[in-house]
Design goal:
Layout (H helix, E strand, L loop, with lengths): L1 E3 L1 H4 L4 E6 L8 H11 L7 E2 L8 E4 L12 E4 L6 E5 L3 E7 L4 E7 L1 H5 L2 H13 L6 E5 L9 E2 L1 H10 L8 E4 L2 E4 L1 H11 L7 E2 L25 E7 L1
Parallel strand pairs: 3-6, 4-5, 9-13
Antiparallel strand pairs: 1-2, 2-14, 5-8, 6-14, 7-8, 7-9, 10-12, 11-12
Protein backbone atom coordinates (compact mmCIF):
# COMPACT_ATOMS: atom_id res chain seq x y z
CA UNK A 1 0.00 0.00 0.00
CA UNK A 2 2.87 2.39 0.73
CA UNK A 3 6.62 2.75 1.16
CA UNK A 4 7.66 3.95 4.60
CA UNK A 5 10.55 6.42 4.40
CA UNK A 6 10.97 6.82 8.16
CA UNK A 7 14.28 4.97 8.22
CA UNK A 8 15.60 7.52 5.70
CA UNK A 9 13.93 10.36 7.57
CA UNK A 10 15.71 9.55 10.87
CA UNK A 11 13.68 11.98 12.93
CA UNK A 12 11.03 11.23 15.51
CA UNK A 13 8.64 14.13 14.90
CA UNK A 14 7.53 13.48 11.30
CA UNK A 15 6.49 10.56 9.13
CA UNK A 16 6.98 10.34 5.33
CA UNK A 17 5.35 7.73 3.10
CA UNK A 18 4.94 7.11 -0.63
CA UNK A 19 1.94 5.17 -1.90
CA UNK A 20 1.97 2.28 -4.37
CA UNK A 21 -0.50 1.28 -7.09
CA UNK A 22 -2.65 -0.59 -4.57
CA UNK A 23 -4.19 2.83 -3.98
CA UNK A 24 -5.40 5.47 -6.40
CA UNK A 25 -4.76 8.67 -4.51
CA UNK A 26 -6.95 10.66 -6.89
CA UNK A 27 -9.87 9.01 -5.05
CA UNK A 28 -11.06 10.36 -1.70
CA UNK A 29 -11.85 6.86 -0.41
CA UNK A 30 -8.29 5.71 -1.04
CA UNK A 31 -6.86 8.84 0.57
CA UNK A 32 -8.96 8.14 3.65
CA UNK A 33 -7.91 4.49 3.65
CA UNK A 34 -4.25 5.49 3.61
CA UNK A 35 -4.67 7.99 6.44
CA UNK A 36 -6.40 5.40 8.57
CA UNK A 37 -3.63 2.90 7.86
CA UNK A 38 -0.74 5.22 8.81
CA UNK A 39 -2.60 7.14 11.53
CA UNK A 40 -2.66 10.48 9.68
CA UNK A 41 -5.46 12.97 10.30
CA UNK A 42 -7.63 12.65 7.19
CA UNK A 43 -9.81 15.62 8.20
CA UNK A 44 -6.74 17.90 8.00
CA UNK A 45 -5.24 16.41 4.82
CA UNK A 46 -4.05 19.33 2.66
CA UNK A 47 -2.93 19.29 -0.95
CA UNK A 48 -2.90 21.49 -4.05
CA UNK A 49 -4.33 21.57 -7.53
CA UNK A 50 -1.03 20.94 -9.29
CA UNK A 51 -0.25 23.06 -12.34
CA UNK A 52 3.40 22.20 -13.15
CA UNK A 53 4.61 25.50 -11.75
CA UNK A 54 6.84 26.51 -8.86
CA UNK A 55 4.43 28.13 -6.39
CA UNK A 56 4.59 26.85 -2.82
CA UNK A 57 1.68 27.15 -0.35
CA UNK A 58 2.36 27.79 3.33
CA UNK A 59 -0.18 25.94 5.48
CA UNK A 60 -1.14 27.63 8.74
CA UNK A 61 -4.15 27.45 11.04
CA UNK A 62 -6.24 29.48 8.58
CA UNK A 63 -5.95 27.40 5.40
CA UNK A 64 -5.86 23.76 6.48
CA UNK A 65 -7.65 21.71 3.83
CA UNK A 66 -7.78 24.53 1.27
CA UNK A 67 -6.96 23.60 -2.32
CA UNK A 68 -4.85 26.16 -4.18
CA UNK A 69 -3.06 26.13 -7.53
CA UNK A 70 0.51 25.26 -6.61
CA UNK A 71 3.06 22.43 -6.74
CA UNK A 72 4.65 22.73 -3.32
CA UNK A 73 3.42 22.86 0.25
CA UNK A 74 5.05 23.50 3.64
CA UNK A 75 3.90 23.64 7.26
CA UNK A 76 5.10 23.52 10.84
CA UNK A 77 1.73 22.45 12.25
CA UNK A 78 1.34 19.03 13.81
CA UNK A 79 -1.48 16.67 12.85
CA UNK A 80 -1.80 18.20 9.36
CA UNK A 81 -0.83 15.76 6.58
CA UNK A 82 0.46 17.45 3.43
CA UNK A 83 0.59 15.71 0.06
CA UNK A 84 1.67 15.92 -3.58
CA UNK A 85 0.33 13.67 -6.35
CA UNK A 86 2.60 11.94 -8.90
CA UNK A 87 2.48 9.31 -11.63
CA UNK A 88 6.01 9.67 -13.09
CA UNK A 89 7.04 13.14 -11.89
CA UNK A 90 9.55 13.61 -9.09
CA UNK A 91 8.32 14.17 -5.54
CA UNK A 92 10.66 15.53 -2.89
CA UNK A 93 10.13 15.74 0.87
CA UNK A 94 11.91 18.43 2.91
CA UNK A 95 12.38 18.08 6.67
CA UNK A 96 13.96 20.72 8.90
CA UNK A 97 15.00 18.49 11.77
CA UNK A 98 15.90 21.45 13.99
CA UNK A 99 12.85 23.73 13.62
CA UNK A 100 10.36 20.93 12.92
CA UNK A 101 9.17 22.11 9.52
CA UNK A 102 8.10 19.82 6.68
CA UNK A 103 7.39 20.36 3.00
CA UNK A 104 6.99 18.51 -0.27
CA UNK A 105 7.02 19.36 -3.98
CA UNK A 106 5.80 17.92 -7.27
CA UNK A 107 8.52 18.38 -9.89
CA UNK A 108 7.95 17.19 -13.42
CA UNK A 109 10.28 18.56 -16.06
CA UNK A 110 8.55 21.95 -15.88
CA UNK A 111 8.75 22.21 -12.10
CA UNK A 112 12.33 20.99 -12.20
CA UNK A 113 13.22 23.56 -14.86
CA UNK A 114 11.55 26.27 -12.75
CA UNK A 115 13.54 25.05 -9.72
CA UNK A 116 10.63 24.54 -7.37
CA UNK A 117 13.10 23.02 -4.89
CA UNK A 118 14.92 26.36 -4.70
CA UNK A 119 11.62 28.10 -4.00
CA UNK A 120 10.60 25.81 -1.15
CA UNK A 121 14.05 25.95 0.47
CA UNK A 122 14.02 29.75 0.37
CA UNK A 123 10.53 29.83 1.90
CA UNK A 124 11.65 27.52 4.69
CA UNK A 125 14.61 29.82 5.33
CA UNK A 126 12.63 33.05 5.18
CA UNK A 127 9.45 32.00 7.00
CA UNK A 128 10.69 29.41 9.50
CA UNK A 129 14.36 30.47 9.78
CA UNK A 130 15.45 27.02 8.60
CA UNK A 131 19.15 26.44 8.00
CA UNK A 132 20.04 24.36 4.97
CA UNK A 133 22.42 22.19 6.95
CA UNK A 134 19.43 21.02 9.01
CA UNK A 135 17.21 20.11 6.05
CA UNK A 136 16.93 16.48 4.99
CA UNK A 137 15.43 15.56 1.62
CA UNK A 138 13.78 12.36 0.40
CA UNK A 139 13.23 11.84 -3.34
CA UNK A 140 10.31 9.61 -4.18
CA UNK A 141 9.94 7.10 -7.05
CA UNK A 142 9.70 8.70 -10.50
CA UNK A 143 10.48 7.93 -14.12
CA UNK A 144 14.25 7.52 -14.34
CA UNK A 145 16.67 8.29 -17.16
CA UNK A 146 16.47 4.65 -18.25
CA UNK A 147 12.94 5.34 -19.50
CA UNK A 148 12.36 9.09 -19.75
CA UNK A 149 12.84 9.73 -23.47
CA UNK A 150 12.58 13.40 -24.42
CA UNK A 151 13.22 15.59 -27.43
CA UNK A 152 16.60 17.07 -28.27
CA UNK A 153 15.01 20.50 -27.87
CA UNK A 154 14.12 19.77 -24.24
CA UNK A 155 17.62 18.52 -23.50
CA UNK A 156 19.04 21.73 -24.99
CA UNK A 157 16.58 23.78 -22.91
CA UNK A 158 18.01 22.24 -19.75
CA UNK A 159 21.60 22.45 -20.96
CA UNK A 160 21.17 26.16 -21.67
CA UNK A 161 19.72 26.93 -18.24
CA UNK A 162 22.01 24.73 -16.16
CA UNK A 163 25.27 25.50 -17.92
CA UNK A 164 27.11 25.70 -14.60
CA UNK A 165 26.33 22.11 -13.60
CA UNK A 166 29.35 19.92 -14.20
CA UNK A 167 27.48 16.62 -14.60
CA UNK A 168 25.57 15.49 -17.68
CA UNK A 169 21.82 15.99 -17.35
CA UNK A 170 20.87 13.25 -19.80
CA UNK A 171 22.00 10.03 -21.41
CA UNK A 172 21.94 9.00 -25.06
CA UNK A 173 20.97 5.54 -26.26
CA UNK A 174 20.31 4.51 -29.86
CA UNK A 175 20.42 8.17 -30.88
CA UNK A 176 17.63 9.02 -28.43
CA UNK A 177 17.76 11.41 -25.47
CA UNK A 178 16.77 10.44 -21.91
CA UNK A 179 16.53 13.22 -19.32
CA UNK A 180 17.74 12.52 -15.77
CA UNK A 181 15.29 14.35 -13.52
CA UNK A 182 16.67 12.61 -10.44
CA UNK A 183 20.17 13.96 -11.05
CA UNK A 184 19.00 17.46 -11.96
CA UNK A 185 16.90 17.76 -8.81
CA UNK A 186 19.73 16.43 -6.65
CA UNK A 187 22.11 18.99 -8.15
CA UNK A 188 19.59 21.78 -7.54
CA UNK A 189 19.33 20.71 -3.89
CA UNK A 190 23.10 20.65 -3.49
CA UNK A 191 23.45 24.02 -5.19
CA UNK A 192 21.04 25.39 -2.57
CA UNK A 193 23.27 24.14 0.21
CA UNK A 194 21.63 20.82 1.07
CA UNK A 195 24.32 18.37 2.15
CA UNK A 196 24.69 15.40 -0.17
CA UNK A 197 24.54 13.06 2.82
CA UNK A 198 21.16 14.57 3.70
CA UNK A 199 19.61 13.58 0.36
CA UNK A 200 18.05 10.13 0.23
CA UNK A 201 17.16 8.84 -3.23
CA UNK A 202 16.36 5.15 -3.66
CA UNK A 203 16.29 5.68 -7.47
CA UNK A 204 13.04 3.79 -7.94
CA UNK A 205 11.71 4.04 -11.50
CA UNK A 206 7.93 4.18 -11.80
CA UNK A 207 8.02 3.16 -15.47
CA UNK A 208 10.18 0.07 -14.89
CA UNK A 209 8.33 -1.34 -11.89
CA UNK A 210 4.82 -1.94 -13.19
CA UNK A 211 3.98 -4.23 -10.28
CA UNK A 212 4.46 -1.47 -7.72
CA UNK A 213 3.82 1.90 -9.34
CA UNK A 214 1.46 3.72 -11.66
CA UNK A 215 3.18 5.35 -14.63
CA UNK A 216 1.59 8.09 -16.72
CA UNK A 217 3.72 7.11 -19.72
CA UNK A 218 3.47 3.37 -19.41
CA UNK A 219 -0.27 3.47 -18.81
CA UNK A 220 -1.02 5.85 -21.70
CA UNK A 221 -1.93 8.92 -19.69
CA UNK A 222 -3.63 7.23 -16.74
CA UNK A 223 -5.63 9.39 -14.35
CA UNK A 224 -4.54 7.22 -11.41
CA UNK A 225 -2.12 8.81 -9.00
CA UNK A 226 0.32 7.91 -6.26
CA UNK A 227 1.31 10.41 -3.60
CA UNK A 228 4.03 11.49 -1.23
CA UNK A 229 2.34 12.21 2.10
CA UNK A 230 3.97 13.51 5.27
CA UNK A 231 2.84 14.72 8.66
CA UNK A 232 4.30 16.20 11.82
CA UNK A 233 3.17 13.80 14.55
Amino acid sequence: MYIDFNSANKCDFAKVIFTTKELDMSLSDDREKLCENVNFNFDNLTYNKQVHGNDVVVVDENNIGNIEEADGIITNIADVPIMVFVADCVSIAFIDVENKVIGCVHAGWRGTYKEISSIIINKMKNIYKSKVENIKCIIGPAIDSCCYEVSHDLVEKFNTKFTNLSESLYIMRDEKYYLDLFKINELILIRNGIKRENIFNPNLCTYCDENTFHSYRRENGTSKRMAMVMQIL
